[in-house]
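Hi all, long-time lurker, first post. I run a small reading group and we've been trying to get comfortable going from sequence to structure in the token notation. Rather than ask abstract questions, I figured I'd post a concrete chain and ask someone more experienced to write out its structure so we can walk through it together at our next meeting. Sequence below, copied exactly:
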Amino acid sequence: MANVYNRIQENKIKTAILISLFLAFIITLGYAYSILTDTPPQGIIFFAAMLSIIMSMVSYFAGDKIALASSRAHEVSKEANPYLYRIVENVSIAAGLPTPKVYVINDPAMNAFATGRNPKLASIAFTTGIIEGLENEELEAVAAHELSHVKNYDTRLMMIVAVLVGAITLIGDLVWHGHLFGGRRSSNREGGQAEAILAIVALVFLILSPIIAQLIQLAVSRKREYLADASAVLLTRYAQGLASALQKIGAQGTPMRNANGATAHLYFSNPFGSGSRFRNLWSTHPPIEKRIAALREMGNVK
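-- Answer (accepted) --
Happy to help. Here is the structure in token form:
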């Protein structure tokens, strides 16, 4: 299983690099704002970051309830669905985690998601489609993937990413809705032409910043999916189970009834179904074929 450990370490490093790029991006954005308005960048960065943190903390503490409610999931007990509950319970024991609350979503699309800001408050939800459509070892692999998100504190990480994205978006909005050129340096000063060119570059950067931020956020989300896949293989010691589940879900390609962009990153696979290459560029998940290819490198996968 050496490739599994290598894959886990590789994805952790790449995530750290992406977060570092995010921080550098915010600092650069603050300086771009200061060039346009002739004001110190520290104030705008601090204000945008604090407002984003407040908004994200609300999502952090209530996000699990929002996700479960928006997907119309209902909790099931061990007595009501012993088959599903025991799968989650067994994987939780293997992962060294407390057994999360188990939910079922009445939806024919094959999908699942985990939520909760820490392992003690975690919940995992499965659609009726995935329960009925997967074999025991495949469903176990999906449960292992979702519990790996819990164990890796991906909810907490994505909250940090949301704060960074929010800060970038707010800085851009403040520029557009504020006095964009009100504090601009006068072009009559020495070197005014060079300053004007620099201001144009800064303005273009501010315009493109929300798109760049979104792409970085999607990149972080995809890396965490690869990491959860590798962690699931480490738990089940059976890469073929996860690969087979992905193949069946990819073949079905059915979008979920209550899918929305706010919770899309939580799901096991893209809840909007398969799409074109351009659409996949804006997806929170890597293409299923790439996830299967990565699994082939970890174990005996057909």
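A couple of things your group might point at:
Strands lie at 73-76, 101-105, 112-115, 123-127.
The radius of gyration is 22 Å.
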